[in-house]
From TrEMBL:
Keyword Membrane assigned: no
UniProt keyword annotations, A-Z: FAD, Flavoprotein, Oxidoreductase
SUPFAM superfamilies in the cross-refs: Acyl-CoA dehydrogenase C-terminal domain-like, Acyl-CoA dehydrogenase NM domain-like
Gene source species: Halosaccharopolyspora lacisalsi
Domain annotation Acyl-CoA dehydrogenase/oxidase C-terminal: ranges: 232-381
One Gene Ontology MF term: acyl-CoA dehydrogenase activity
Protein's name in the database: Medium-chain specific acyl-CoA dehydrogenase, mitochondrial
Domain Acyl-CoA dehydrogenase/oxidase N-terminal: 7-122
Top-level taxonomy: Bacteria, Bacillati, Actinomycetota, Actinomycetes, Pseudonocardiales
InterPro entries, sorted: Acyl-CoA_dehydrogenase (IPR050741), Acyl-CoA_DH_CS (IPR006089), Acyl-CoA_Oxase/DH_mid-dom (IPR006091), Acyl-CoA_Oxase/DH_mid-dom_sf (IPR046373), AcylCo_DH-like_C (IPR036250), AcylCo_DH/oxidase_C (IPR009075), AcylCoA_DH/ox_N (IPR013786), AcylCoA_DH/ox_N_sf (IPR037069)
Cofactor: FAD
Length: 392
């Protein structure tokens, strides 16, 4: 039997997050808009820390972090449901108690210096693979690391690195064997900022919290003990990082779409033109209907991808489908919602334009639309996936 219902526990957790979002985050929305429009981050660091502490006191900490590290170790389905709820506000918030999935490959010393403080929120990491000459084609990276005695010397430049402005350390992917390239010749290094890399912020159309940085490595010396995993095995780690939760990106966008369509419904019922609410016009009704169909489709794509993860299946195909569909549909939906709001939708009186700018990124980062299509079609043509889906 296919069962689309939530268990009582899943519902309780989802409802707890829903209440948290309504009580703690949504009241901050006007202030977030004001701050962002002044070029500041949505929430000051202290306020973000307070909110995370509040959630932690209620036992909400480390959504997918293993229990042995104090986390909740929730399922992928639960993580998706939580992201959908968080997405219903644009207040930039995520629960604390989290570290990059590949940091769990750390050895004992690295565990103490990097993994545990990152989970605790005492240190911040960033993931650095993209370069000016290598984005979609990540195998083409040119940053090098050469061995000198007991150290590695890193030279190169990374770009568009999220969190690169204030990270304490970077997970840096560099070529250690040019002949082998991505197949055994790329290594991942844990590189502290005080080892000598520099970062430069990159202005973007999205909100300040998204602002990435370029990182410059000019003869940065890294102790050999700072190789994460094995020398030459870095590319697989990079792919593991990227694949950690592709379904969570469209999940967050889905929450935003729900809220946006609710705003559009409310507006269309109160705004009158030519003697009647615009909601009476078929053109407006169709925009609402199409958006509802797409939101519902996206919900099941996201949850099905998550369910595949929880079932121990290879979910990459389903995750690519959810990411592609989420990116294109969310952008279409926010555009319709702006249209329904008319001139008001285009102003900064409302957060619609903020969502519009932010959602655009979903079609670009962590695999562009085109790269997802490439992956999906390859999977089909090579017989790794079927158009009949997982039920066969
Ligand atoms: C705000 C932001 C945050 C980011 N955060 C990070 C981060 O934390 N860490 C990190 O390492 N990177 C990060 N990135 C980089 C991001 O992952 C890349 O921008 C993305 O993978 C695309 O690479 P590119 O920009 O070089 O575009 P390109 O690869 O140059 O692509 C340009 C265009 O060509 C298309 N294209 C490319 N190859 C093909 C093909 N084979 N077939 C058809 N079309 C193709 C692309 O889809 C795109 O439309 C971030 C980017 C942004 C904008």
């Amino acid at each position: 039997m296919v069962d689309f219902s939530l268990s009582d526990t899943e519902r309780d957790i989802r409802d707890w997050v829903r209440t948290f979002v309504q009580r703690e985050l949504m009241p901050l929305e006007s202030e977030v808009l004001r701050r962002e429009r002044a070029g500041e981050r949505g929430l000051p660091k202290e306020q973000l820390a307070q909110l995370r502490d509040k959630a932690r006191q209620a036992g909400f900490w480390g959504v997918q972090t293993p229990e042995e590290y104090g986390g909740m170790d929730l399922s992928a389905v639960m993580a998706a449901l939580i992201e959908i709820e968080l997405g219903r506000t644009f207040v930039p918030f995520s629960f604390g108690g989290y570290a990059d999935n590949i940091l769990y490959h750390a050895n004992e010393e690295q565990r103490q210096r990097y993994l545990l403080p990152t989970i605790e929120g005492e240190r911040k990491s960033c993931f650095a693979i993209t370069e000016p000459g290598a984005g979609s084609d990540a195998k083409n990276i040119r940053t090098t690391a050469r061995k000198e005695g007991s150290e590695w010397v890193i030279d190169g430049e990374k770009t568009y690195i999220t969190g690169g402005i204030d990270a304490d350390f970077a997970l840096v992917f560099a070529v250690t064997d040019r002949d082998r390239g991505a197949d055994g010749g790329v290594t991942c290094f844990l590189v502290d900022r005080d080892m000598g890399w520099k970062s430069e912020p990159i202005e973007i159309m999205g909100p300040p919290d998204r602002m990435p940085a370029s990182l410059v490595f000019d003869g940065v010396r890294v102790p050999e003990g700072n190789v994460l995993g094995e020398v030459g095995r870095g590319f697989a780690l990079a792919m593991q990082w990227i694949g950690r939760g592709r379904y969570l990106l469209p999940a967050r966008a889905l929450g935003g779409c729900e809220r946006l369509v609710e705003m559009a419904m409310e507006h269309s019922q109160s705004r009158e033109t030519f003697g009647a609410p615009i909601a009476d016009r078929q053109s407006i009704q169709w925009m609402l209907a199409d958006s509802a169909v797409e939101i519902e489709s996206l919900r099941w794509l996201v949850l099905q991808a998550a369910w595949q993860i929880d079932s121990g299946m290879d979910s990459r195909h389903a995750q690519s489908i959810a990411k592609l569909y989420g990116g294109t549909r969310a952008n279409e939906i926010v555009d319709r919602v702006m249209q329904i709001h008319g001139g008001m939708g285009y102003t900064r009186e409302l957060p619609v334009e903020r969502w519009y700018r932010d959602l655009r990124l979903l079609r670009i980062f962590e695999g562009t639309d085109e790269i997802q299509r490439r992956t999906i079609s390859r999977n089909l043509l090579k017989g790794h996936a079927s158009v009949s889906g997982v039920l066969g």
